[in-house]
Design goal:
3-stranded antiparallel β-sheet; disordered C terminus; 3 strands
């Protein structure tokens, strides 16, 4: 399903907590200085994490109908000029494939696509407000 590569990445949910921290040792206080004084936050790539499960996208289970709606909405967003007949045809193709492969397999495929996209990290984030991580401005290299 090559079209999955072109799907929009879901928008992150804004942080609701007042604190964002990671337990660590005082060995690298210079990193804390950069976060506090220069408002920059480094996030490692998936390959740099010591647990392969960390950072792996987990998609919430969806019913067959919900998954069909999600995939069709994304397809139509990426193909705005389709005729009504072609829209109906694509809806039938998507529904057929969701039934054939099942929501679980398709969600696993989507998860793999997200995992490949996330590998673009490491990134350096400029933190506008430490209390609101949703205001991070990405400065990936």
């Amino acid at each position: 399903m090559a079209g999955l590569e072109l799907m929009a990445t879901p928008a992150p949910v804004p942080a609701t907590g007042t604190h964002f921290y990671r337990y660590g040792s005082p060995e690298h206080l210079e990193r804390l200085k950069i976060i506090v004084l220069e408002h920059e936050l480094y996030i490692p790539s998936l390959d740099q994490l010591n647990d392969p499960a960390d950072g792996r996208p987990v998609l919430a289970p969806m019913s067959e109908d919900h998954l069909v709606s999600f995939l069709l909405e994304d397809f139509l967003r990426r193909h705005p000029g389709l005729t009504l007949a072609n829209q109906v045809r694509e809806a039938m193709v998507i529904r057929y494939n969701v039934r054939r492969y099942g929501p679980e397999k398709i969600l696993r495929m989507l998860s793999e696509v997200l995992k490949r996209r996330i590998k673009r990290v490491p990134c350096l984030f400029h933190v506008e407000t430490l209390g609101q991580l949703s205001t991070l401005g990405e400065v990936c290299r």
